[in-house]
Amino acid sequence: MMFKKTLASAVLGAAVLAAPVAAFAANETAASDTADVKSATTTGSVKFEAGHLSLYNVNDAVDFGSANAATVYASGYDKTTDDESVNVDDFLADNGQWTLNVKQGGWVKGTDGTTAGETALNNNATLKIGKKTVTTDGVDIATGNAANNGTAIDLGAYSLSVAKNTNVNAGTYTNTLTWSLSNVAGAATN
Fold first, then answer.
1. 21-38 b/e (C-beta count within 10 Å ≥ 16 → b)
2. Which of 22, 36, 45, 69 has the greatest number of beta carbons closer than 10 A?
C-alpha cells in the first residue's frame, strides 16, 4: 500500500513539474555545434474571455402615496420618494461605454381605477428620477464603463407631479418602468 502511494505521488509530482515546461516547450532554443549561444527568448501568452454586462439593485416598487381628488385639483400633487441607486458591472472587456435607459409604460388603472383616470394621469402627470423626466420613449439616465464596476450609481429620487386643475379619478393606478442596458464597444485592442 505504501509503495502505491509513493508511486502515485511521484507520478503526480512529475506531471506538475512537466506542465509548465510543456507550455513553453514549443519555443525551445536549438543547440549549436558551431557558435556560442549567449541569449534566448521566451514568449508567454494568456487569453482572457469577455464576461458580462449586468444591471442590478434596481428598486422593485415605489409608492407615491395617496391624495384627495379635491386637493389634487386645487393644488396639484407632488410626491418625492426613494432614491434610486443601481449597480452596473461591465466585464465585456471591450473598452466600451454602457448606457442605462429607462422608460415608462404609461399609467394603467388597477381593479378600482378608471380609463378616464389613466388618461388624466398620462396627460397631466410627470414622473422623474432625479432631474430626468421618464417618458414612454425613454431617457438615457446614466452612462459609464468598466471603471464603475462595484460602485453604486446614485440616480436621484423618484418624484411624481400631477398638475393643478387635473380631475383625477378615484382608484389605484400603476406605471411600469423598463430599464435597458446597452453597450458600445470601444477601440479594438490587440
1. eeeeeeeeeeeeeeeeee
2. 69
In 3D space, the residue among 151, 153, 97, 157 whose CA is nearest the CA of residue 132 turns out to be 157
- What are the structural domains of the chain? 53-184 (2.60.40.1090)
CB 176 within 8 A of CB 138: no
CA dist., res. 53 & res. 89, Å (int)? 6
Residue 146's region, left for phi above 0, alpha for psi from -120 to 50, else beta, is: alpha
Q: Which amino acid is at 74?
A: A
For the entire predicted model, the pTM comes to: 0.74
In the block, cell 514549443 appears at 26
Tens digit of each residue's pLDDT (9 = 90 or more) over 60-88: 999 999 999 999 999 999 999 989 999 99
